[in-house]
Design a protein that fits this description.
Strand order of the largest sheet: 1-6-2-3-4-5
Number of strands: 8
Structural class: alpha+beta
Strand content: 15-25%
Protein name: CHAP domain-containing protein
Distance between the termini: 30 Å
């Protein structure tokens, strides 16, 4: 059954997978593409395998994937459970978020946890397999997140999304346990999230000249200091944090 839970479960099943010589890998092959840098192919393949293909771009380009979400008004600088996260230092040659991608499976006040392909223990954008990694949430390398229109709704940290139909707002911490278990019709249809007729997603291999701007988001009302990598505080340790749909403290990214 489609949804964030299915997306995360499928991505985690592949942890430990290793590529063959010359970037040969099962995910690029599954999507009908040659051996190549395959982090975006991994996300596309996992979406297909978990019944979520309509909610994700089918492309081997991180920049194209980012632009796909932005065109639909579903790009944020705040994490969400099951979102596609885009990595890339500001001013990088591949454009914003064009260096690497993966699936955000959880976040805390200071970190995000990601399952990604074509990486390694150091978080390289050109590694040897599928790994689970933790990154600093407010790192410049963590550029943006694509919000899939999951049928059960969305759990996110973006204060500007709070109050939207089907959205549960957890500004400081959330993971798979916080996902709703029933689908909501108001999150958008598969057709809303499907690729544009003008976008040949199944064969995208490059994104020349695509440099979309960083999206505008609501200003935060509370700051969280930068922290070193590692687990952040659990929900019960943060004043005002609740594991339900009630209002929480805003964070900035």
């Amino acid at each position: 059954m489609a949804g964030a839970r299915a997306m995360i479960d499928r991505a985690e099943r592949w942890i430990g997978y290793r590529e063959g010589p010359g970037n040969s890998n099962r995910f690029s092959a599954e999507m009908g593409r040659p051996a190549e840098s395959w982090c975006a192919d991994f996300v596309s393949a996992v979406a297909k395998e978990s019944g979520n293909a309509a909610y994700f771009p089918n492309t081997s380009s991180c920049s194209t994937g980012r632009a796909w979400f932005q065109r639909r008004g579903r790009l944020s600088v705040y994490p969400a459970v099951g979102a596609q996260v885009f990595f890339g230092e500001p001013g990088g040659p591949l454009g914003p978020g064009g260096e690497h991608t993966g699936v955000c499976i959880a976040y805390t006040a200071t970190t995000i946890t990601v399952v990604a392909g074509n990486t390694n223990d150091n978080g390289s954008p050109n590694g040897d397999g599928v790994y689970r990694r933790t990154y600093r949430r407010r790192s410049d390398y963590v550029e943006s997140y694509g919000y899939p229109a999951y049928p059960e709704g969305l759990v996110c940290a973006d204060p500007s999304w709070r109050g939207r139909p089907g959205v549960t707002y957890f500004g400081q911490q959330a993971d798979e346990r916080d996902l709703p278990r029933r689908a909501v019709a108001s999150m958008g249809s598969a057709a809303d999230s499907a690729a544009d007729p003008s976008e040949p997603g199944s064969t995208d291999t490059a994104d020349p000249g695509a440099h979309p701007e960083r999206p505008e988001v609501e200003a935060a009302s509370a700051e969280v200091p930068a922290a070193e990598d590692g687990a952040g505080p659990r929900a019960e340790e943060i004043p005002g944090q609740r594991r339900d749909s009630e209002q929480e403290t805003d964070l900035s990214g």
